[in-house]
Amino acid sequence: MYQDAFTQVPTVMLIGSESPEETFLGKATLGGSGWRADCLGDYDPTKTKWTHMDNAYPGALTKARDDDPKIDSSWQRAPTQFEICHDMEYWQREKSSSDGGYGYYIDNVRYIFNYALDHHASLINAKSKPIPDEFQPAVQEVLKK
């Protein structure tokens, strides 16, 4: 219904999960919509924690291929969007937290942004918060790409 109602603008569907009940992503991209994933950047460089980037996104995209075998090229027809987890000020605080944090150092922030670019991101929503100076180089690099 959404695609029928909005024929003149690009549409996106939330990525969802690999759950058998969630069959909407592949159907949406097959019908011409793009996709959006929340919580970009809950990356764990040690690979010891469950994360959206390492666990949720790949499983959801694999599940969506059941309905849309060409979902990996959906970026050619419609936007692919990411919204970061928390905000970049949080990332700055988290890298020095006593509980281990996720390691939001500049190289890992670059990895996170390159992950989005590898999935042909049209938009990376960093929310309406300031970007710490130490992450500005990574932001400028992704903007150039």
Residues in helix, %: 25-40%
Total number of helical segments?
6
The percent range for strand residues is 5-15%
Shape: globular
Rg: 16 Å
As for the number of domains, it is 1
Structural class: alpha/beta
Characterize the biggest β-sheet. Answer: 4 strands, parallel
Q: Which strands sit side by side, in order, in the main sheet?
A: 1-2-3-4
Helix/strand order: HEHEHEHHEH
- Mean pLDDT comes to 90
Low-confidence parts, pLDDT < 50 over ≥5 residues? none
Number of strands: 4
Give the CA-CA distance, first to last residue. 34 Å
Write the layout of secondary structure elements.
Layout (H helix, E strand, L loop, with lengths): L1 H4 L6 E3 L9 H7 L3 E7 L11 H13 L15 E5 L3 H7 L11 H13 L4 E3 L10 H9 L1
Parallel strand pairs: 1-2, 2-3, 3-4
Note down, in words, how this protein is organized.
The protein has helices at 2-5, 24-30, 52-64, 88-94, 106-118, 136-144; strands spanning 12-14, 34-40, 80-84, 123-125. Helix 2 (24-30) crosses helix 3 (52-64) and helix 5 packs parallel to helix 6. It has 145 residues and is of the alpha/beta class. 28% of the residues are buried. The chain has one domain. The N and C termini lie far apart (34 Å). Helix 3 links the parallel strand 2 (34-40) and strand 3 (80-84). The protein is built from six helices and four strands, in the order αβαβαβααβα. The mean pLDDT is 90. The chain has a four-stranded parallel β-sheet. The chain is globular, with a radius of gyration of 16 Å.
List descriptors.
single chain, 145 residues, alpha/beta, four-stranded parallel beta sheet, 6 helices, 37% helix, 12% strand
